[in-house]
């Protein structure tokens, strides 16, 4: 199960969202989603079914959104008495969360007997649904047929997740958490610049064991690598991250492969590289590993300790040297002379694109400032948040991909 995506402070591409709430205990999570959207300066219109009001009151959503909550198909507040049409006009998306089995069936068969189901039929924007129900209800053949029909109709199905359910059972049917739903809304509005492209990234540090408790590593949080993974997935890519030890959450829709050492990372990359269109080497890979690893903890003594180190495999250069290499992008964290050292590295590894930055400015930070190095020279980008930067870098990469 993927961890919830990081909470976004901004929601690029989103200005107004309609949240449809149906009857289910997971409705409480939509209150948190409303708060996150408003915090990101998104206007939120909440539409509730009658059953939804049995779980969370309309007053709660009105307080969080700062706007009237709509519940009645027949209310006369709209100037032309066409509220079921007007609500979705100008919205970037309609998200139904939680989407009960009953409401999914309504959507699949085109029923329109309340305000929410009617506006879903009359909308002009995209529709996303986040199912939430008991595991048997989710697995029921009728529910699966209805979900398949919605997907065929172009409706985005978000989840469900697997975990502990309100009925005290464990299984598939749990609604995604609010941050993951927000990430999905944002992703729905991003240009699909990598649609159909298979993207493999490395992220985080690697750890080279000296003994069972000590090792050699690099100072890397993995934030930039996972931000790029999220941005690539938002852009429509099929994304896999091979990650060294990192506490950063896995973005929704991204496959994560955890490794420890550089050798393990190289093995995981090589197994998958043949099926990839783009390889992005973001990981801060240890350049050296102990020539011998001690099975027992080394005891401290007054004497100096000498370690013999040997070079690790150069994953990026190995991938770039393949006969049918994917489009390769490298990263270089330098302490000084960033552009000169970065360009030397790019040429040495025969990369079409390398992204260079000052190591002391980026490590552990939520922001970064980079320079793109390619055959056309150096292209500096302004300092920005790592996710915003990742989206910009994905656009730059997509622009440079060979046209098939």
How does this model look, in words?
This protein is an alpha/beta fold and 404 residues long. It folds into two domains: 16-188, Rossmann fold; 198-399, CoaB-like (Rossmann fold, 3-Layer(aba) Sandwich). Helix content is 32%, strand content 23%. The chain is built from 14 helices and 21 strands. It has helices at 27-39, 58-65, 83-86, 101-109, 115-121, 135-139, 141-152, 178-188, 223-234, 262-272, 315-320, 338-349, 359-362, 386-400, and strands at residues 16-21, 43-48, 93-99, 126-131, 156-157, 161-164, 170-174, 198-203, 207-209, 215-217, 238-243, 255-258, 278-281, 288-290, 309-311, 327-334, 353-358, 367-368, 371-374, 377-380, 384-385. The strands form six sheets. It has an eight-stranded mixed β-sheet with strand order 12-11-8-13-16-17-19-20, sandwiched between helices. α1 runs parallel beside α2 (58-65). It starts with 15 loop residues before the first strand and ends with a helix.
Helix share, percent: 25-40%
Q: What is the general shape?
A: elongated
Low-confidence stretches: 1-7
| Sheet with the most strands: spatial strand order | 12-11-8-13-16-17-19-20
What is the rounded distance between the termini?
35 Å
In short:
The chain is α/β, with parallel strands linked by helices.
What key phrases describe this protein's structure?
404 residues; alpha/beta; Rossmann fold; 2 domains; eight-stranded mixed beta sheet; five-stranded parallel beta sheet; 14 helices; 21 strands; 23% strand; elongated; disordered N terminus
List the helices and strands and how they pair.
Layout lengths: L15 E6 L5 H13 L3 E6 L9 H8 L17 H4 L6 E7 L1 H9 L5 H7 L4 E6 L3 H5 L1 H12 L3 E2 L3 E4 L5 E5 L3 H11 L9 E6 L3 E3 L5 E3 L5 H12 L3 E6 L11 E4 L3 H11 L5 E4 L6 E3 L18 E3 L3 H6 L6 E8 L3 H12 L3 E6 H4 L4 E2 L2 E4 L2 E4 L3 E2 H15 L4
Parallel strand pairs: 1-2, 1-3, 3-4, 4-5, 8-11, 8-13, 11-12, 13-16, 16-17
Antiparallel strand pairs: 6-7, 9-10, 14-15, 17-19, 18-21, 19-20
Helix pairs in contact: 1-2, 1-8, 4-7, 9-14
């Amino acid at each position: 199960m993927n961890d919830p995506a990081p909470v976004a402070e901004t929601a690029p591409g989103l200005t107004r969202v309609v949240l449809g709430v149906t009857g289910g205990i997971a409705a409480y999570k939509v209150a948190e989603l409303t708060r996150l959207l408003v915090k990101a300066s998104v206007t939120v219109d909440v539409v509730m079914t009658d059953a939804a009001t049995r779980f969370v009151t309309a007053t709660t959503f009105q307080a969080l959104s700062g706007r009237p909550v709509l519940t009645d198909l027949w209310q006369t507040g709209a100037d032309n008495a066409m509220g079921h049409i007007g609500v979705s006009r100008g919205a970037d998306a309609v998200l139904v969360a939680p989407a009960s089995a009953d409401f999914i069936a309504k959507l699949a068969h085109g029923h329109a007997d309340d305000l929410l189901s009617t506006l879903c039929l009359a909308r002009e924007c995209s529709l996303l649904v986040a199912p939430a129900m008991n595991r048997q209800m989710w697995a029921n053949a009728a529910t699966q047929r209805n979900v398949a029909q919605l997907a065929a109709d172009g409706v985005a199905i978000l989840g469900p997740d697997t975990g502990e359910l309100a009925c005290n059972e464990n299984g598939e049917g749990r609604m995604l958490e609010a941050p993951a739903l927000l990430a999905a809304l944002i992703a729905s509005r991003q240009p699909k610049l990598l649609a159909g492209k298979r993207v493999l990234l490395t992220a985080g540090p690697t750890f080279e064991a000296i003994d069972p408790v000590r090792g050699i590593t690099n100072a890397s949080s993995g934030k930039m690598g996972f931000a790029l993974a999220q941005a690539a997935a938002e852009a429509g890519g099929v994304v896999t991250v091979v990650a060294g030890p990192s506490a950063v959450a896995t973005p929704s829709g991204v496959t994560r492969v955890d490794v420890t050492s550089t050798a393990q990372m190289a093995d995981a990359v090589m197994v998958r590289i043949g099926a990839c269109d783009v390889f992005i080497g973001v990981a801060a890979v240890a350049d050296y590993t102990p020539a011998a690893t001690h099975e027992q903890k080394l005891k401290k003594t007054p004497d100096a300790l000498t370690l013999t180190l040997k070079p690790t495999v150069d994953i990026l250069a190995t991938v770039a040297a393949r006969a049918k290499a994917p489009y390769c992008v490298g990263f270089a964290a330098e302490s000084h002379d960033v552009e000169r050292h970065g360009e030397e590295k790019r040429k040495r590894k025969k990369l079409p694109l390398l992204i260079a930055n000052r190591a002391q400015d980026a490590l552990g930070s939520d922001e970064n400032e980079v320079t793109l190095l390619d055959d056309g020279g150096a292209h500096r980008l302004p300092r920005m948040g790592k996710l915003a930067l990742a989206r910009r870098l994905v656009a730059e990469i997509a622009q440079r991909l060979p046209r098939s």
